[in-house]
Structure formats: structure tokens, C-alpha cells
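Listing S7. Sequence submitted for prediction.
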Amino acid sequence: MDGMPPEEVRAVLSTLSREFSRPLRAFREGLDAVSSRHDPGGPARDHATIMATVCDDLITVTDSYSDYLWQSRDDRPLALGRVRLADLAEEVDRRYAEGARMHSWTVLQDGPDAEVAVDRPLVLRLLDHLIDNAARYTPIPGTIAVGFAIDGESWRVDVRDDGPGIPEPDSERVLEPFVRLARDVNAAIPGAGLGLALCRNLANRMGGGLRIYTPAGGGTLVSVTFPLVSKADRGETEGPGRVPVED
């Protein structure tokens, strides 16, 4: 679906989610019923368990379609507030440290602190996807590092891991919906190819941008930049999908 207009992508996802979600869940319930009628360790029970696992994977994929549709909506106003970058870094550390405990996990606020305008729920949602992605592709006990920094008129959050990395020629392509590297598909790494596309959409909604780099030491670095101040703070006219910053 490379190059497909966003409205067509949303229409396809809506259809797939609607048409497949209900029958998959009904089929999953049927598999549970089959399992309950057979003894553990028997071939029928084992087969039903395998089928249930496959069904669960398909349900996860269809649920990701619904999540993408909901989270990429651009008709809801931003709930901008002011927060210090160091406080945001501490919140991210508390929120994700437990889930990343199998990896070497660090969160840093580099350089001077500053107060920034941010839609906190959207930023955390974006980081949900980036950190989950990093954990999925980074072998245990590999490193996942999150860094916050002021960069001129912007502030930046970087998520770095020491997984297999994304080849530079694919760094833009993987930001499109449904795009997955053949390497990951062949390795049976779960995913629908929507997480990075959603992250870019969320960053764009907040007036920012997302780039993917391959560090010299290997792995992947995803860097997301946001304006240091909002349009309202700069005295610019508020556009659709945006509410004034609250103190």
C-alpha cells in the first residue's frame, strides 16, 4: 500500500477490522469449547491450542487496525499543556521501566531543562509504540535508551536500541502503513506494519517530525522533534484540531 492516500488507508483498515474482528472472536470461542471437551495432551486438544494461538495473533492484528484508526484521527483538538522536560523524562522512566526490565534501560534528560508545550497523552502514546518496538526487536539483555534534549527552537526525544537496525534505504519506507521488512516477516516477528506510521502521524499532529537513523554502533535511533513553544505562544492563529495552551 505504498503511496496510498491516507483516506484510502483508513477506509481499508476500517473494512478489514469490521469484517474480520467478529468472526475471528467467534472462532476463538469455538476453539476454547473444543479444547474443553478433550483431555490435556491429546492430539485434538493440542491442535485446538495451536489454532487458538494463530487466531490470537490474527485478532491482535485486526485490533491494531482499530487502534491505528482511533489514534491517527486528526479531528480532535490537541490538549496542550506546559511541562518541564526533566519532569517528562522522569514520568517516562516510571511508566516504562518495569516493562523494559529485561533489557538495559536508561532515560536521560540531556543538557539544560526547559518548559515545553506538549499534549502529554499523545506524546506518551507515541512513546508507547516506539518503546514497544524497541523491546520487540532488541535481544535480551540489549539496550533501550530514551533521551530528551533541547535543540534550538525545538525539543527532541530519541529512542535508541541495539537491535538489528533498519537499513538506510528503508528508513523512509517503513514509515508508510503496512510496510514491514522481509527480514522481520521471515523471522516471524509479530506486527502489522502500523506502529511507525502511527508515530509519524502523531508527531505531525503536534507540529513535529520523525526521522529514523542507523547509528555508527548499529541498532536503530528514532528521533522525534517538536516545537519548543506552541503556535498560541508565538501569537499565531489557532488552526483546526488545536486548543490553546493551558498553564
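Caption to Listing S7: primary sequence and predicted C-alpha cells for the chain studied. Confidence is low (pLDDT under 50) at residues 236-247. The domain at 81-227 is CATH 3.30.565.10 (Heat Shock Protein 90).
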